[in-house]
Amino acid sequence: MEPIQSSLKKWMKENKNFQVNYNQLRHEILMDPEVRELLDKHPEFTKSDIDKSLMKLYEFKSQSKHCENCPSLDKCVNILQGYTPFIQVDGKDIHLTYEKCKRKRKDDEQKQKQTLVKSLYMPKDILEASFEGFDHQDAERHDAIREALAYVQSIGTSRAEKGLYFYGPFGVGKTYFLGAIANELADKGISSMVIYMPEFVREIKSSLKDDSINQKIDQFKKVPVLMFDDIGAESLSAWFRDEILGSILQYRMMERLPTFFSSNYNMKQLEQHLATSNRGDTEVVKAGRIAERIKHLSKEVPLFGHNRRDM
């Protein structure tokens, strides 16, 4: 939309009978219901006062208020996209101000929320997950839903220091649960990071080439809420298990930072999986240390039901 003053000057230039058209425009402005309401509240305004502010009143009249004439934020018709005009009166001076419309506020809130949910190779639909998307009809999921709701409700208490460990078969929605919790936390202003475990392993290995490994590990250690998705799906080296995963979990355990997990294994099965390195070595004691940290950091929650990916 071109500036109001430019369009008005163009209008003046193109109309030969300026006075007639000016009077007609003035009449239309003053008959606008919202302008009429303003003038009725301020009977002290003289004709000179009104004419002095006619351009501002025209600008106010010609724009959409409260999104009434805008199909969407992207197609906002106002001079300032996403802002709605308001008139303020100071003595006999009329001022035009702009405030964010409801769509602009919602869009800003959504963008702010997205900055609070960081991810490492997670699909978009998971990052947009919500509690409303839970399948409440499947009785096998009720316990997991209750635990997720109870956790979010416990924010601000000592109970919230311990995350959840969702385990169950492939495709039942474990990752979706993590995404939904992350978004609920974002609504409360709490930052989280959701990381897909197999890609996380590859990310750490590649960071050895550019010496960014310590910086990345420090980030994983200190993020307010960390979520490991699909732990156990990867084959870990003893070095990664003990020096990387172990150090992250140890730090978060000591600092009481909430940590979540999803896995096809229950905790006992995961411990057995971790005991065997990608070289075939078996180290029960070291795997047990990792398992104990996971148990300390999270509550085991079974998640079963139909395979959502077959739908």
UniProtKB/TrEMBL annotation:
It comes from Aquibacillus albus. Pfam families: DnaI_N, IstB_IS21. This is Primosomal protein DnaI. Residues 160-300 form the AAA+ ATPase domain. It comes from the Bacteria.
